[in-house]
Amino acid sequence: MGTKLRVAVLGAGRIGRLHIGHLSQRIPGVVVTVVADVIAAAAEKCAADFSIPSVSNDPLRVISDPNVDAVIICSSTDTHADLIIAAAKAKKQIFCEKPIALGLDRIDAALDAVDKAGVKLQIGFNRRFDSNYRRVHDLIREGAIGDLHILKITSRDPSPPPIEYVKVSGGLFLDMMIHDFDMARYLTGSEVEEVYAVGAVRVDPAIGKAGDIDTAAVTLKFANGVIGTIDNSRKAVYGYDQRVEAFGSRGMADTANRRPNEVRIYGGTEVKEDLPLNFFVERYTESYIRELTEFVECVTANRTPPVTGLDGRMPVAIGYAAKRSYEEHRPVALAEIR
Amino acid sequence: MGTKLRVAVLGAGRIGRLHIGHLSQRIPGVVVTVVADVIAAAAEKCAADFSIPSVSNDPLRVISDPNVDAVIICSSTDTHADLIIAAAKAKKQIFCEKPIALGLDRIDAALDAVDKAGVKLQIGFNRRFDSNYRRVHDLIREGAIGDLHILKITSRDPSPPPIEYVKVSGGLFLDMMIHDFDMARYLTGSEVEEVYAVGAVRVDPAIGKAGDIDTAAVTLKFANGVIGTIDNSRKAVYGYDQRVEAFGSRGMADTANRRPNEVRIYGGTEVKEDLPLNFFVERYTESYIRELTEFVECVTANRTPPVTGLDGRMPVAIGYAAKRSYEEHRPVALAEIR
Amino acid sequence: MGTKLRVAVLGAGRIGRLHIGHLSQRIPGVVVTVVADVIAAAAEKCAADFSIPSVSNDPLRVISDPNVDAVIICSSTDTHADLIIAAAKAKKQIFCEKPIALGLDRIDAALDAVDKAGVKLQIGFNRRFDSNYRRVHDLIREGAIGDLHILKITSRDPSPPPIEYVKVSGGLFLDMMIHDFDMARYLTGSEVEEVYAVGAVRVDPAIGKAGDIDTAAVTLKFANGVIGTIDNSRKAVYGYDQRVEAFGSRGMADTANRRPNEVRIYGGTEVKEDLPLNFFVERYTESYIRELTEFVECVTANRTPPVTGLDGRMPVAIGYAAKRSYEEHRPVALAEIR
Amino acid sequence: MGTKLRVAVLGAGRIGRLHIGHLSQRIPGVVVTVVADVIAAAAEKCAADFSIPSVSNDPLRVISDPNVDAVIICSSTDTHADLIIAAAKAKKQIFCEKPIALGLDRIDAALDAVDKAGVKLQIGFNRRFDSNYRRVHDLIREGAIGDLHILKITSRDPSPPPIEYVKVSGGLFLDMMIHDFDMARYLTGSEVEEVYAVGAVRVDPAIGKAGDIDTAAVTLKFANGVIGTIDNSRKAVYGYDQRVEAFGSRGMADTANRRPNEVRIYGGTEVKEDLPLNFFVERYTESYIRELTEFVECVTANRTPPVTGLDGRMPVAIGYAAKRSYEEHRPVALAEIR
To answer: How many domains does chain D have?
Structure first.
């Protein structure tokens, strides 16, 4: 490995492009040497915009490139496991967007390959790197709120994805709430034992026709006794709504949404503020930068990455439990999932 | 009826005394003519402190007094139904503290008596008169947030009641969360169809030994499709925590806790504010005054009171559903309760 | 003196009526035995509304009534000094609305009479009893913000008074900013040494034609080295704006306006809150009650009232200094005033 | 000019280094081709850290380099005017840190040179590019608060600079408050006509011994009738305090400080938040990036820069007026300055 970590970005879609921008301009100690996408034009555009020296339409070939130290997997979900396995075999360090796969068997196969190869794997649960959530996490760990009793997570998108996406997404619990399941594990420091889910189609009947729901509330029981609740909506007209509330024996920590400015406007009929930051690109820019910065640091310093393969597996399992709970209309134990 | 409504207050404990103070000093058009308590000393102290002309240790006898137009029932819960029935037979107007009774059959007997007598009955769900909750209620009714999708209620006490009280309270769902069940019906304008409850003993093992829980989260499904969540704790070290969040198709309305002042203190290590108002007497003073003001107005103007007998019955039924859900570890339909 | 302090209220206008309501219903240990107003109908209406046994159209005669222990002077400003002098001679305890008089010689005559008679005099600077200002005051006294360096006071009315009132008001500095001069002394615990005032007519040209200004900013230098600023406007469309900010060597304390509720409304274009409480009756109800409660307690317990005659005199002197500064366009030392 | 604007950065101290980082990594369309500093080691370190191809210890020689399109002047204040004049003669586009010079004659000489050469000059008043101030500016321009009546600016540093710096800084009015004078002009869209300044040594006696003050309040009268107030302190223990409040005929807009997170912590004795961002690097990062982005865009698109030479001159003139006001203890007209 040279002085800078040489990474290949696999997938030049929205999130791939986002990571390439950060890796090129905001993160020290790393250089993007190649970008690969099965849609060659997407890879070429990224390469041109960010002065990346090499382009490919074959991610697997890129993985075997001896000039690549690590891969950043941003391709479609169904390719993640195969790319992880290939990269592990090629002894590359791996950063992979969530979820590893929609099937737990595929996930396990990928994690096995990583284990056997002894490479590092970090999963892209970027919200763990957000300054609000990290602060709440640290407060809990420091004991600032005592023993955690209740954890409440709110997560609402500004608008639903296209119906075509909904159809292949795996459903709200695996596509959207998966982030919140990760956050729940991150904040409680404990594993989910049981899930109860309710859901509804309230935002758009087309989502229901596609076999999914757009509004949901989930109750979680954790091994350490914490009770958790999560609510999701595919559409909050006021923008991206991302908050947590951690209640414990010695106090509570909560977060508010981030705003584009701190201006208040007092008029003749009301006091107004601008809406919160609209969506994940605006809201989580800093957390995207931090997660890759820490990945680069962990690889360079040979440390375990902060979001492990297990951290990638568990939210998928919880998602399946939630899905089953919703479908069977009863609380479902995590132990029932596989 | 004279120019002022003449009321008898039955029960001179904490809440009775509170109401007497408001009736004597803050509410126009009403006069407390007698206070009755089986503990004569309590009634006498109230009478002396608030210059009430007459005292009794026999609430039933007071009910038959022709100089009494209405009764304010603040005695212990187990006496409510009998006093309502007696008052109805005596054609008195009735304000009764919640709950009407812990048994649904007793409640129904009381409501029947009220119906047959054609008198008015208002139940003491004072939070409906709080300026925060009322504002959210009105915003929902005005359509300011569109169709309601998710309703979240947080309700936490500053410290648990004495264990002796816990033992006879009916349990957290019927003693504490009952207020939140009422709030849920008030805000959604719809009936609960199904309840799922989880609970735990996290605050004090003695509460568990007394057969109760101190921490709970409940999921509600409403007839109009709203999903509701309620969380309760018997102990929030930062004081009384009473908030709602109403999320709908066109926006969200939420509330913050009321504070004793609007001061912020910026020091060398943090920015600080004083804690919220500590408990219900401080927090809900205005709502207590408003509920009795409206009762007096409704009686005087011959209008239906704003919190009816049915409003008193339903939260008890929901409480039983929650209790059964917790005990049987499954969602319980309201239709299962009697 | 009987078990309750017997007070006569002199003046049955808006503020007199307000005090009578509080004295009758909210303040223990006191009874209003008579209300006097040169406009007999006003006194009679108050007496009827609050069940006051006696009425008079001659305040001076009321002062000599042996059944009166204390007088609450709420009549027009030009009568305050004469009534204080008469009440002092009659050995009555005195609460007087601000200002004592518009002439410093008249004020001094009144204070002399009080001194000679050895009676108590409290001036109606009610804002000292507001929970926000009192909290900031106490924080400063406790050293929570260290040595005070800068004090900023904002005071804006929701709308200007009638022009007829403006003409006889003494002008913005003596009619409106006088409250802020009192607040400045209260919070700094120090005397003003120099004043610099700028002002303008921005709200209504009619105010300028009446010889007054409607917008002003004043800089104060205090004996203890604090620098103070005050800004006033006769018209804030968003309601009554009453805030302070105290900056010191160890921190800052500031206040926000009080709101009718703690609701926030998130819509598709903005986040909204209801306007602050509109004017002094809503905002300062509790402080009006507290100031008279403390007056009654001080008289009953023979303690010095919390707002003394000197506290009534100094803001008037500062007002004259501000007026001169504005007219002569230069900083004016307090020592120049008389 | 090539496809990217080629800039030389003159001065490799703290602010030069900051700009180089942004120009290298965050701002499109520009390339730093050379960095110059009379202290060669400083320039060399910057060049190494940011891969800048060329280094110099002679800023004047760099200015004449034909491969340089524009210069970013970040050297010590006493060199600004000479470098501007040299750059103008060499027909380079100029971005210069504030102030242009401490002498108005030097400023005028520099502005004359710029005028004659027809080059662009942008002054580094970065706060105009802050999202809070820009939002308030735009609200005022859009008429959202009606006619502006009162403008209040608060500006406090977390800790004073070293005494050696204080001695050569030009004093608080020219070194610190100059930013606020610029903000006042930016927000009011009007020129200052008169200044009244009070000041004190409250933070550190050594600042007084060095002939300066550390605490000040200034009142401004603007040509358009606005009344302005500014307060400064060299030391706010709670961090960098940067706020404005704009009050007008139709409403008010104010700003709060930016925080590192939106977390609130409710404990047994108080509610807490973390302190605001500590100093200008944290607080104004985005505004530093935007000012240079706009400079690059203006040069590239041949537009007038958003902060002109006159905008650089006027705050210095106001600073002298404030200084004279403080020294002569009287309001000083801007017309008196030169």
So the answer is: 2
